[in-house]
Amino acid sequence: MRSLLPILNAFLLLLIAPILGIVLIVGFDGQEMLALDLSSAKLPVAPLEQQMNEMETAIHSIQQSLDSFSQQANSEKGDFEAQKAALDTLIVKSQKQTASLPYLGKLLYEQNFARAIGSGPTYTHHSETADIKIYPVHRNQYRGYLAKVKAYKGNAFYVSTAKDGRGTRETTSSAAKRNKAILAINGGGFYPARDHGRTVYYPLGNTMVNGELIGSFMPSYSELFFAGFDPHGKLVGGYYESFDAFKQDQPHNGVSFLPVLLKDGKKQEIPRSWQNRRQPRTIMGVLKNGDVLFLVIDGRQSNWSKGITLEETQSFLQQIGCIDAYNLDGGGSTTMVYNNKIINRPSEGKERPVTTHIMVRP
Fold first, then answer.
1. CA dist 34 to 24, 26, 28, 37, 159, Å?
2. SS3 assignment, position 288
3. Which of 4-18, 56-70, 192-206 has the lowest mean pLDDT?
4. Whole-number pLDDT of residue 2
5. Given a cut of 70, is residue 19 above it in pLDDT?
6. Please, which contacts does 49-53 make with residues 24 or more away whose CB atoms are closer than 8 Å?
7. 360 close to 184: Cβ distance less than 8 angstroms
């Protein structure tokens, strides 16, 4: 706005220059100018005065308009700056809200998950390796615990065999303490055998420990699956008829048992001999968001927990958003250890030694 004032002032000066010249001549106090006798000249003074008054009025009006325009420009400039500041504030708030959307989505998911379980977590653990939340599970005929694990490192999950090597067993709490695990459950199934007059115990099917297959590869048979984790911590598993098919999933740690409970969110057929049998259970699975779950349900204790059928387990897992799930060794083997403490109630009143354990690094 200020840049227009010099131009307008110059315009006004050019406009009134002739009149100023006449005024100067008239006010020359009788002196001659260009041999002109002013005493005899009849100048139209009254019309000139009227024109000057009109010009002054016009100039004053223009000046008022300029002042008004300047004030309006300044006001509009202030309004613009105020509006810009308000808009900047809204943009900052919008950016903060947008940045918080993932967090709000996770918070809503956690709330819905806890609602599906029926309770908030009893134990929590956070580290650079993994986040762990352990929820109590309590239904009409069974009780237990569900651990939900979000892994941040590929080596968060691993399998441990008994400390004395192949053919021996070890309790889950002992293995967890020895391996300095923050969370551990019993692993795959096993069977007894006689070797040189003594009883030994071998894992069923295929067992992988840190990328090494224990023994020779064994094709799947009689509903026996392999389930575990690839080098990135992703849950893999299923039935494998050949070693080539087995290698395609890049198993790094894992165990074997039966049966598969869920695949791609769909219930799998339960073998007839396993149907509608209420027992202690140990389950491993993965949720829709990629979190891994470990579920232990106590049983064979009428005053505490009678156990759960595999059909009930399938329905429960679907309700909480599980995609794939595998039934691990259960019964007296079912154990969950958190921070060097057994948190469930093994059915035999104490831990049963087993051949394999699935663990989470702290």
1. 14, 13, 12, 9, 121
2. coil
3. 4-18
4. 47
5. no
6. 51/19, 52/19, 52/23
7. yes
